Amino acid sequence: MWGEAMEGFFNISLVVEALPQLLTRLHITLFLVVAATILGIVAGIIIALLRIYRIPGFNQISLLYISFMRGTPIIVQMFIVYYGLPAILSSVGININRWDKMIFLILTYGLNMAAFLAEIIRAAIVSVPIGQTEAAYAVGMTRLQTFWRIIAPQAVLMGLPSIGINIVGLLQDSSIAFLLGIVDVMGKARAIGANTYHSLEAYVGAAVIFLVITLLLEKVCATIERRLTMKIIGD
Amino acid sequence: MIKITDIHKAFGKNEVLKGIDVEVAKGEVIVIIGPSGSGKTTLLRCINFLEKADSGKMTLGSTQVAFKHATSKEILAIRRQTAMVFQSYNLFNNKTALENVMEGLVTARKVPLRQAAEIGKNMLDKVGLADKHNAYPSRLSGGQQQRVGIARALALNPEVILFDEPTSALDPTLVSEVLAVMKKIAQEGITMIVVTHEMSFAYDIANRILFMDGGVIVEQGTPKDLFVNAKEERTKQFLKRIVPEWSYNI
Amino acid sequence: MNFDVYFMLSALQESLKYTWVTLLLAIVPFFFGILFGTVIAIIRFYRVKVLGELLQLFVVIIKGTPGMVMLLIVYFALIQGFDTISQTFHLAVKSKDINLIYIAFAALTLTATAAISETMRGALTAVATGQYEASYSVGLTKRQTLRRIILPQALPVAIPVLCSNLIGLIKGSSLVFMISVTDLMNAALIPANTNYKYLEAYIAAALVYWVLNVVVENIFFWLEQHLSTYKREVLV
Q1: Which residues sit opposite B208 in a β-bridge?
Q2: Least CA distance to C211: which residue of chain A?
Q3: Is A88 part of a structural domain of the chain?
Q4: By CA distance, what is A177's nearest residue in C?
Q5: CA B82 distance to own-chain centroid
Q6: Is residue A9 part of a domain?
Q7: CATH at A142
Q8: Could you say which DSSP state residue B128 is in?
């Protein structure tokens, strides 16, 4: 009797059945993560450099931006972008109501990531010892040469672990993207749950996928870190 | 060849250099000694503009600059005629020993890669690191790192090499290997300005010793003049305090 | 664009009324997270056999599961599990009688425990081994060493990370609207359901979260200064 009841409550074979269906939507999740990461890194570097070189007026704005992005839930940011961007753009005569929802998601996650990365990148650049800059100047290198040839490679090493953690965080955050109606892994899990009345198994299946991708990502990051460390400082 | 006139430098209210004149001839080895805080290092760092002096002028070869108003172009010109060996080595952590030596040649002076590698290898061999060309700084001892630092400076073939307490950060056992290299290049007629606390070494290699205290040059002369026949009371006091260290090294 | 400021302000008002729910949803899991997380960290730090490895597995699984997924799994597991049990034993209580906030507490506590255990483990590792050796050398027991020497040094290290843990919880608690708990975000959204002015509602919620998190950050900054006095004394 108990076993039967248990079966009705949680049936592991349903998880196994759900997995292949969920995996058919994995590329949507991964696409979002990759696209947002690229946007986040590019925007993050720009913000970090503008802050380091103290571009007048920009410092306050970027601080405010970073504080907002870090201080509010990503779900709120997502809906503000989704409802706010079309409203702003339509007031200047641009109609983006037919844009793919994915674009709003990439923007949200990318801009969110940029705020976190900007601080990481800035800290990484600042943490390279001043002696490195002095030595570069002493052999007659210009500011730009010093930055690209000496500072940046070392900063990459310092920032890499945190960037990896943020990419994993982005993957986890992507689990709410389905609220906007895209059918990624989570969207598919919800659909399976609605069709079969076995939501628990569907979401456990999604959890398994997130867990495996998280572990893989961590492994990849660790490998890249090791290889780059070897390549950059030979240790 | 180098002529510095009336250089002043203050950090906030703390006046570190109070009007110093120095002239260095080609091939001369100048050693600057003095208590810590006397402005020795600051003087060195002002010469290649790692610090910006408040006033004064400098002539280096054919370049003439006023410290306060030097343009970034002039600064670069000065830096490309000088080289520096740092107390904390400051090897580029992301470059091998050979790449460290080549970096200034290739990037700053646009020497072709092959030629730069050639020079770099020669210099590393010269400082006794023939077997460490491809080692990264993290794999080198302090003494080895500093010798790469010296090779890096030598490779640039500068008008003058500035040594900023090159052995102060080293393990006592590693000091001699660096001093030996410095002695060797001093004998080759390379112009050097050395800030150091190694008195016997100073006595050995200097053509002229400057004693600095409180932001001025108190006394200068040949090693013998200074160590044996110091005229100024401050010099005698300083040498007296330093003698145990000195005799220990001899 | 027509942005309804008055509606935003009224949504803000609704948000503020339910801010205590958000705080509760963050602080209760935070508290239990510190409690359980520290215990897990200590067990793992001392590499207790079997238990240490099991806890590591637990932490890896929970950390690898996004908060949203965790919340939904706990929700469906508890609801269905509860009904299964009450059916089996012919009980009168049904899952719909459970206050859903407890489900939110359970899910958020799981997430918090895993995250904070990592924070505490990091802090324990950050204390130099010399400190342990010195403590043992003067005859302190493991427990004494932990309480008198290690934890006081580890705590200041942990504070900034704990701060981001708490901020993560405040933000993460916004997901409870999924299971119809009314927190500050859901409170702002409810009036918008009739007039579709969602942008105003979300901006109102964003403002409250923002202020809340800035305040939390400042409190922790003050705490950090306060707790690391021993460092300052050494420096002076």
Answers
A1: B30
A2: A71
A3: yes
A4: C68
A5: 10
A6: no
A7: 1.10.3720.10
A8: T
The boundaries of the domain holding residue A218 are 16-234
- A174-226 pLDDT tens trace: 999 999 999 999 999 999 999 988 899 999 999 999 999 999 999 999 999 99
Q: What is the DSSP letter of A197?
A: S
Check whether B250 has a pLDDT greater than 50: no
Which member of B49, B88, B156 has the closest CB to residue A131?
Answer: B88
**Domain boundaries, given as residue ranges, for chain C:** 1-18+182-236, 22-177
Reported as type and span, the H/E element at residue B9 is strand B2-11
Instruction: Say how many domains are in chain A.
Output: 1
Gap between the Cα atoms of C115 and C29, Å rounded: 11
Write out the two tokens for A113. Answer: 């990531």
End-to-end, the C-alpha distance of chain B in Å comes to: 33
pLDDT above 70 coverage of chain B, percent: 97
d(CA B72, CA B54): 16
The sign one gets for the Cα dihedral B94, B95, B100, B103 is negative
DSSP assignment string, A175-205: GGGGGGT--SHHHHHHHHHHHHS-HHHHHHH
Q: Which two tokens stand for residue A21?
A: 């269906």
Q: Which fold has domain C22-177?
A: MetI-like fold (1.10.3720)
Please give the structure tokens belonging to residue C81. Answer: 């599990």
For residue range A156-169, list pLDDT tens digits in order: 999 999 999 999 99
Q: Does A172 touch chain C (CB under 8 A)?
A: yes
- A22: number of Cβ within 10 Å: 24
Q: How far apart are CA A140 and CA C66, in angstroms?
A: 50
